[in-house]
Amino acid sequence: MAELGSHEAGPCQKVDDGMTRVFQLLGKRWTGLVVAVLLQRPVHFAELRRAIPGISERMLSDRLTELGAARLVVREVDEGPPLRVSYRLTEAGAALEPALKELGSWAERYLPESGPCPGELRKHPGASVAE
User: Under a CB-based contact definition with an 8 Å cutoff, are residues 87 and 45 in contact?
Assistant: First the structure.
């Protein structure tokens, strides 16, 4: 039995730094769905929460804060009354659209309907995977 760390480093590769950064941000639960909703148009907080079943207000607030810190989302205060806050994607956030659409197409083709994603979050529940 080989000792831990005794193999040569040749076959092992370090994960790309860019991919690491992407998945540290977008790999968090709910983040991709928040971006997907905002790709459609700017949205008020309550509307965004309704669009993502199961997300808590706290979690949504945390994800929006993270996306804002990454300069992907902008928080805008709509002058009231009533005072309302909306969120929109920045140019960098909107540039995620082709990649997210490609991931969605990949999921439709390769992820089974009974996969780990709750059915209520699927765009087309009951649709079969085309081969």
Answer: yes
Strands 84-89 vs 73-78: parallel, antiparallel or unpaired: antiparallel
- Closest to 75 in 3D by CA, of 61, 88, 84: 88
Q: What is the DSSP annotation of 93-109?
A: HHTTHHHHHHHHHHHHH
> Do residues 120 and 54 lie in contact, with contact meaning Cβ atoms separated by under 8 Å?
yes
Do residues 110 and 104 make contact, with C-beta atoms less than 8 angstroms apart?
Answer: no
Contact 64, 75 (CB under 8 A): yes
- Strand order of the β-sheet with 43-44 is 43-44, 84-89, 73-78
Say how far residue 21 (Cα) sits from the centre of its chain.
13
Nearest 5°: phi and psi at 100?
A: -70, -40
- Say if residues 38 and 93 touch (Cβ distance below 8 Å): yes
Average pLDDT score over residue span 84-88: 94
| Weakest-pLDDT range from 8-17, 78-87, 103-112, 116-125 | 116-125
